[in-house]
Automatic annotation (TrEMBL):
<dbReference type="InterPro" id="IPR011006">
    <property type="entry name" value="CheY-like_superfamily"/>
</dbReference>
<dbReference type="GO" id="GO:0032993">
    <property type="term" value="C:protein-DNA complex"/>
</dbReference>
<dbReference type="InterPro" id="IPR001789">
    <property type="entry name" value="Sig_transdc_resp-reg_receiver"/>
</dbReference>
<feature type="domain" description="Response regulatory">
    <location>
        <begin position="4"/>
        <end position="120"/>
    </location>
</feature>
<keyword id="KW-0597">Phosphoprotein</keyword>
<dbReference type="Pfam" id="PF00486">
    <property type="entry name" value="Trans_reg_C"/>
</dbReference>
<dbReference type="GO" id="GO:0000156">
    <property type="term" value="F:phosphorelay response regulator activity"/>
</dbReference>
<feature type="DNA-binding region" description="OmpR/PhoB-type">
    <location>
        <begin position="133"/>
        <end position="229"/>
    </location>
</feature>
<dbReference type="InterPro" id="IPR039420">
    <property type="entry name" value="WalR-like"/>
</dbReference>
<dbReference type="GO" id="GO:0000976">
    <property type="term" value="F:transcription cis-regulatory region binding"/>
</dbReference>
<keyword id="KW-0238">DNA-binding</keyword>
<dbReference type="Pfam" id="PF00072">
    <property type="entry name" value="Response_reg"/>
</dbReference>
<dbReference type="InterPro" id="IPR001867">
    <property type="entry name" value="OmpR/PhoB-type_DNA-bd"/>
</dbReference>
<dbReference type="InterPro" id="IPR022305">
    <property type="entry name" value="Response_regulator"/>
</dbReference>
<dbReference type="InterPro" id="IPR016032">
    <property type="entry name" value="Sig_transdc_resp-reg_C-effctor"/>
</dbReference>
<keyword id="KW-0804">Transcription</keyword>
<feature type="domain" description="OmpR/PhoB-type">
    <location>
        <begin position="133"/>
        <end position="229"/>
    </location>
</feature>
Amino acid sequence: MSATIAIVEDERAIAENYRDALRRHGYRVDLYSARIEAMDAFRQRLPDLAVIDVGLGSEVEGGFELCRELRAMAPTLPILFLTARDSELDIISGLRLGADDYLTKDISLPHMQARINALLRRVSVLRDQSDEGESLTQGKLSLDISRMHCHWNDQAIDLTVTEFWIVHALAKRPGHVKSRNQLMEAARVVLDDNTITSHVKRIRRKFQVSDGEFNAIGTAYGMGYRWQL
């Protein structure tokens, strides 16, 4: 069965262009032009991936609010921002709210499709992994790979797909430094260094809410990050 992609975009012509391109690649596509309309639909049935614009009609940051609401409803659902807003503040804001990727509208359709394919593949691979077993435990950390569940000291930590991949890549080999490029490869996504840094900061904050003394993700300055027991 083909994956369903929800596109939340208030400019109809742009939304239909994206829809037609994705349908040619076999995806089912639902279009929404407003935050409330999209959330009403998501409460009935979640898509397999959501593509969201930041500005939605009269709501200048409606996409950010939608991302926040959708992430609370579905912690592991792949969410991708596709917007004309390209400031570093907007990008960081989107990632802090839990988006897995942030693209600007000057991106080519083939590039957009590749990023969407990568996000959906990562969900599939995580759930279908068999060579590494169903779980990974390192000290207080426990990862249920098939369900994409993460626990720290028996407390659940809600991670996005990208965050889960990064934690898994680091915890799999404690003490070994993973460069930002290696983390991108592990997460099967193309991100710049600043975006990887933003993801790591967000991961740390999530663990620190559960454990104020959390320090398992160490920084190897100029090199990358390591999982330290």
